[in-house]
Amino acid sequence: MRKCSSTIVFVPVLLCLLCLGGLTAGARAAVDEDQLAQLQELKKEFFEAKSSSAQRRAAHRMLRLDEPALRQALQFFNEQLDQQEEKYAKRLAEFLPQKYLKHLTTLRDEEIYKIQKTRRLWKRYILKASNRYAFQDNYLVPCAEIKDILLLDVKRVMSRDISSARAVLQLYADYRDKCREKLGLGNDPTVGMKSPTGIDIPPLDRPMTFDDRLAYIEASAVLAYTVGYEGARPILLDNAHVARQIDYEEAEFALFANEVRMLVGSVGYEIDPLVCACTRDHSNDRNDGKASGHASTIPGKERFTDRLKRFGAQGRSEGAGHTKSGRLYIWRLSYGGGHTHPLYALHRNVHGCGRRARFYTSVYYTKDAIRHPCAATENELFMPPGFTGERIASQALRKVYLALQENQFGKARELMPDRRESETDQEVIRRFFKSAIKMEADWALECAAMYVKAGDVYAAQLRLEQAKAEFTGADQYLRKFDSFLNKLNRGRRARELKIGKAYYELPSKSPDDATVQQFIEKHPDSAYAKAGQYYIDHKNDNPKKPKDLFSYFWTEETLLRKYEYHLPE
User: Fold this and answer.
1) H or E element: which one contains 6?
2) What is the DSSP string of 140-155?
3) How far is CA 47 from CA 40, 70, 76, 90, 220, in A?
4) Confidence class of residue 375 from pLDDT cuts 50, 70 and 90?
């Protein structure tokens, strides 16, 4: 994938307003020449003020202007707030990486191991999304655990410089909010806004307060400048800006998705505020009893594609739910089925979530222009979250890095320097590499144990043989694999291994019943005979999802997908 710049990019509020149809006709009323001249003079005083008190006086005088000029003052305050947010984000960009590195040095070995295992668990899902049983328990819960380990709380690591920048941001937000209040616009930024097709933007249930917006900027900056891959930074920071235009719970939906995506090494997820407006409109119809689920009886709104066209928006798939918060909505969509894929996989990278009361709707699509590499696509999930291979300065660690990229874990272990690195970031990398190697060996053993539990002992043997090839030279791990293999080659399991080898030699795609029946009659009391009979009995149950020779083992152990059992390449 192509490299993507990490430049901070904000979408100005004015641009958002124009994209969504701009202000109402009243907003475009002519400004009195005297008032306009006074406004220009006050802007000059604001910029040239020698003290904060002088600046405040200029701002407060702007707030006393008549309505037409006051609307232009609002545009001015919006622009100033945009600039202050960008300055604050830049300060966080300078401040957070050092704090994050210091935090990584405090992690215990068991915490690093948990991080490495969670990212390894997600690797296959990110690169090739497929259904996963018990997705919430087996994928999201581990993410929540490493979130508690990795993510910084800006308020707890606040410096004097960051605190001062925060105070300035709050002051500018106050000017903007008071201006909106005088104009009768309230705290809801959607007032007077229209879609490109002239549709009124539905109001918000809970517009963001200043504290909400500030917390969102900080949470997004933490993801962008600590655990996130470089290409995700502009997406995350633009989201923090766009979040001012949508409902608090809608924004929380996006933040939850990006927390997971950054923690597991995936790509950034962009908010489309116009799609949020469209889906909010559908949620409103559902709340009013005029629509249900994905369907609507309102002319022009029957299907989600009709609703998007009506707003001048785009989208490829839709989700719908009924719950109490944006985070709970995304959690419930994450059950492992089709709705899960656009939330966390690589393919969909733009969304719009719309809320009304307890009703939620979401639409997703792909934007090629914001595609960027991530830890999963660059095979760098073994790096500390947020680090890339370019961060490696130690020649010894560079060799380990290259071995890990080739899945040569035994070679990586042989090359691993046992002594601590003198540079702080290099020592952090060394500890993460060391943990990744140990975790990968444990993961192979865990997979094999699950295959045995399901009854497919031959798959367990194949997995361990693969692990032995990957860990060539690392005797401490090879002994563990051999010990497991020796247990498989004893007693009844040894017999099952031979039967399993014969079963794997059957045609893998649509074997004829006669061939499978012959196998069953030859090995009547084996687990593979049961698997063959299950295939014959159930192969036509669902033409859209045909059974295969290994479907039986899924029924014996539902967690096999977690361990990449017979997933398509």
Assistant:
1) none
2) IHHHHHHHHHH---GG
3) 11, 18, 12, 21, 29
4) very high
Any residues with CB less than 8 A from the CB of 29 and at least 6 apart, and which?
67, 68, 71
Tokens of 58: 């200029």
Among 457, 460, 410, smallest CA distance to 563 is for 460
Scan for tokens 């090494």, then name that residue: 265
- Residue 201: phi and psi, rounded to 5, are -75, 125
| DSSP labels, 221-288 | HHIIIIIS-GGGHHHHHHHHHHGGGS-HHHHHHHHHHHHHHHHHT----EE-HHHHHHHHHHHHHHHT
- Position of tokens 């094999």? 448
Give the bridge partners for 151, in sequence order: none
Q: Which two tokens stand for residue 180?
A: 């909106």
DSSP track, 39-86: HHHHHHHHHH-SSHHHHHHHHHHHTTS-HHHHHHHHHHHHHHHHHHHH
Angle between helices 424-454 and 67-105 (to 10 degrees): 80
Which amino acid, 91?
R
Provide the CB-side half-sphere exposure for 563 (13 A, CA).
23
Nearest Cα to Cα of residue 383 among 406, 407, 404:
404
Q: Which of 442, 364, 340 has the alpha carbon at shortest distance from 133?
A: 340
Rounded Cα distance between 57 and 47, Å, is 12
Q: What gap in Å lies between CA 351 and CA 246, rounded to an integer?
A: 13
Among residues 200, 119, 138, 172, which one has the least CA distance to residue 375? 119
Instruction: Please provide the size of the chain in residues.
Output: 569
Beta strands 359-365; 350-356: pairing state: antiparallel
HSE-up of 143 (CA within 13 Å, CB side)?
Answer: 24
Q: Label residue 449 exposed, middle or buried (CB < 10 Å: 0-12, 13-18, 19+).
A: middle
The b/e string for 74-99 (b: 16+ C-beta within 10 A; e otherwise) is bebbbebbbebbbebbebbbebbeeb
Cβ neighbors of 68 (< 8 A, separation 6 or more) are: 29, 30, 31, 32, 35
pLDDT band at 29 (very low <50, low <70, confident <90, very high): low
Residue 45 token pair: 């005083």
Tokens of 493: 């399991």
pTM for this one? Answer: 0.90
pLDDT-based confidence at residue 85 (cuts at 50, 70, 90): confident
Tokens of 34: 């005297």
pLDDT score, position 16:
42
DSSP state of 138: I
What is the Cβ-side half-sphere exposure of residue 241, based on CA atoms within 13 angstroms?
A: 27
Q: What six digits make up the tokens of 521? A: 């009659």
Asked if 8 and 230 count as a contact pair (C-beta separation under 8 A), the reply is no
Of 66-75, 347-356, 381-390, the range with the lowest mean pLDDT is 66-75
Cα separation values, 453 from 134, 382, 529, 558, 560, Å = 18, 28, 16, 11, 10
Query: Do the strands 350-356 and 270-271 form a parallel or antiparallel pair, or are they unpaired?
Result: parallel
Q: Tell me whether strands 295-296 and 350-356 are parallel, antiparallel or unpaired.
A: unpaired
